[in-house]
Design brief:
The protein is built from 9 helices and 17 strands. 27% of the residues lie in helices and 26% in strands. The protein is an alpha+beta fold. It has an 8-stranded mixed sheet with strand order 1-2-12-3-13-16-14-15, with helices on both faces. A 6-stranded antiparallel β-barrel has the order 4-5-8-7-6-9.
């Protein structure tokens, strides 16, 4: 990975971006995209779009979602303890004992999610997973009045865990899901720009908002861009760790290349093009059946505008929806290269239609 791309990635990963509060991260993304795109724009809710070769045909979207999981201040009691609600699918069992940042209009307020010492917990009975109303953040305030001077209801909350490398290729951080997808989208655009004399299509790299709370940002992009095809990049579960039944969840290995999803929203003709591009570029591909227990922004695109052909590339991610997610950065680079190879393979005016 080139140095400038890695430095951008580190900055992006270090910029908090919970669902509904993505603006700071979107600015980082837009500033980078302006170096290569013909146009960079945002919409009313903060979706960011970088456009390459706007007069090309077809119009093809590269989509990643900018938002990360987080929490939001719900209630402050008279003792100064702060109760929160989740933003997205966070396991409450993983929250206790974590340091958090509360993002206020006047700056960051550091706190901890309270965890009662094991010595003071009931000795009998099974330990139960806490429910969200039982979790609280302690900012060291003397009382509710002091806490309310520093924090208010509606402030977003993020975990403090930072990005770091474990060796040459393996990275760990909170919220690879899915700022890595937005990195792939704009990096794919950058690589395509290097060969723009060969490019027939228009490329729209999208950093979409609010996927973790319903995928509304991608639906807005579908309406605003009206693309002819969309290649969505998201993390996917790496199932190569202990305790995961691959017969139930499929086999996806970290470091073995991106996955390509099959079925449902995944368009077979567009998939064929992506497979051919991967073969010619010697990029390893893994394959997955579409997820029956979750989805990506492709679900927000494929049924819009009378049907938008979609493909989904997955970045293998261990420990998804925790604060210690793990990826192989070579998989991320491969996705960016595959995005560029796929659009460079498209012909003037190409459309994707199932033959019957």
């Amino acid at each position: 990975m080139r140095t400038e791309s890695f430095e951008f990635f580190k900055t992006l990963m270090g910029t908090p971006s919970p669902s509904g509060f993505e603006a700071a991260g979107q600015k980082v993304w837009c500033d980078y995209a302006r170096q290569f795109a013909d146009e960079v724009r945002t919409d009313a809710y903060g979706n960011a779009v970088a456009v390459l070769n706007p007069g090309g045909d077809p119009k093809v979207v590269f989509d990643g979602h900018a938002d990360e999981l987080g929490m939001m201040v719900k209630y402050i009691d008279d003792k100064g303890f702060i109760y929160v609600q989740r933003i997205g699918g966070i396991d409450p069992a993983l929250v206790r004992g974590k340091r958090v940042d509360i993002h206020t209009l006047t700056g960051l307020v550091r706190g901890v999610v309270g965890a009662t010492a094991i010595h003071l917990q009931p000795r009998e009975g099974e330990k139960k997973v806490p429910k969200w109303p039982e979790l609280f953040v302690d900012i060291g305030a003397a009382n509710g009045e002091e806490a309310k001077k520093r924090v208010q209801v509606g402030n977003p909350v993020t975990f403090t865990e930072i990005f770091e490398m474990l060796g040459e290729h393996i990275g760990v951080a909170r919220a690879f899901d899915n700022r890595v997808g937005t990195w792939c989208a704009v990096e794919g655009l950058r690589l395509a720009a290097e060969k723009r004399d060969q490019l027939k299509c228009a490329v729209y790299a999208c950093s979409s908002v609010m996927e973790e709370v319903g995928g509304a940002g991608a639906a807005m992009n579908a309406a605003n861009i009206k693309p002819d095809a969309a290649i969505v990049v998201d993390v996917t579960h790496a199932t190569d760790t202990p305790g995961i039944d691959v017969k139930e969840h499929g086999e996806v290995k970290m470091g073995a290349g991106p996955s390509l999803s099959i079925g449902r929203e995944n368009h077979p003709v567009l998939n064929e093009l992506v497979i051919a591009a991967a073969r010619d570029a010697e990029i390893p591909l893994q394959f997955e059946a579409f997820g029956i227990s979750g989805g990506t922004n492709a679900l927000s695109y494929y049924s819009k505008e009378g049907g938008i052909p979609c493909a989904v590339l997955g970045l293998p991610n261990r420990y998804m929806h925790t604060t210690v997610e793990m990826i192989d950065l070579r998989d991320m680079q491969r996705i960016a290269e595959l995005l560029a190879a796929s659009v460079l393979r498209m012909t003037q005016g190409q459309r994707f239609k199932v033959k019957v």
